[in-house]
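Researcher: Hi, I'm a grad student and pretty new to this. My advisor asked me to get structures for two proteins we've been looking at. I'm not sure of the right format, so I'll just paste the first sequence and hope you can take it from there.
Model: That works fine. Here's the first sequence with its structure tokens right after it:
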Amino acid sequence: MLTAVSKNIDRLESTEVVAGFSLVELMIVLSVLSILFAVGMPAFGRLLHDIEIRGSAEGLRAALQMARTEAVTRNARVRISFNDVSGRPAWTIGCVHASAHCPGAISTFRSQPEIKTRLGVARSDDAIDLAVALIAGRRLPSGVTFNALGAAPGVSAGVDASRIDVLHVANDQARRLVLTIAAAGTVRLCDPSAGNDATFRCN
């Protein structure tokens, strides 16, 4: 009886399978992962750059809308100025004629050195197609002045920015976004590469 039990135990021990990976299997898995990583990294990098551009563009749109709101609220002309000639997203919002009621500096945003997004500006008389990207720093310093009605007459006169491109200096394949400013003072953010049926497409 004991002999039969010991034979059964010996048989179970001899059929045990050792779990794990061989060195060849491990090398194959690592090779496949490295290929996937090499292929996926550029796309992931572009995604991050697209997010940076979107963040800068949204911040700039909010600043333009803030300048317009301040002009209406204070019943005065308020200007948003872009003074960084290299195109870094930095601006100052202030009243054209400073007073106790309307200060010369209402709000200021300074770009951080690690930010790689840049701005390029065009005026209404430049007649540059939206499909053509503006270079970083183009027509800077520049700005937009809003009057007490929230309009921006300098846009139609060709003295203020009517278009601002937001792009990435480290990746020219990143998705460029464009802000357009109308003479009525409205600000629109659009994507010149969006499909014809997309609401976000530039007209």
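Researcher: Oh nice, that was easy. Here's the second one.
Model: And its structure:
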Amino acid sequence: MSDDDKTRRLDDEYFKKIAERAKGAPAGSDQDKTQIVGQKHERETFQTDSDKTQIYRSAKIPEIPELDLMGDPPTGWLVAISGPGKGSVLTIGIGNNGVGRGSEARINIPFDDNQISRGQSFSVVYDPKNRRYYLLPGTGKTLLYYGEEPVLERLDLKTGMCFQVGGTSFRFIALCDETFDWQ
């Protein structure tokens, strides 16, 4: 049995079953020797000479992480189809979406492709007025390639197009187009 199998969360069904058995167990039985104790101040009120096993619950309530929303609805996606991030999906919002490994990019690359510079590697722009997408080179040192050619100026981006930056290839999927838009 590994250490992971020995450690369980206090709120899982395993401990709930132990607590129920302990409550209804006859005095002096093995099942009567388990006691679930709540917060720190409750711990101090229990006698330490008890032969019961005491399970302590944390006084802290776990924090629920906030959702990382862009503030606007999705307009499309970039799907990593090869490379270190294969299978990763990046959501594109309205306007200029700088993409990179660094914190200054609107869309942060969530995987390690060390060939991609930390700066803004490229941008995907969604123009809601004309319902069009554009692919732009970034300010980082890593070049962006469409086919075998580097992207050095604005390129019209159509759904299904693939491009490469660093060791990762992306496929662009549009949600908004001439048939649908959020406005």
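Researcher: Is there anything I should tell my advisor about the second?
Model: You could mention this: The first strand starts at residue 34 and ends at 37.
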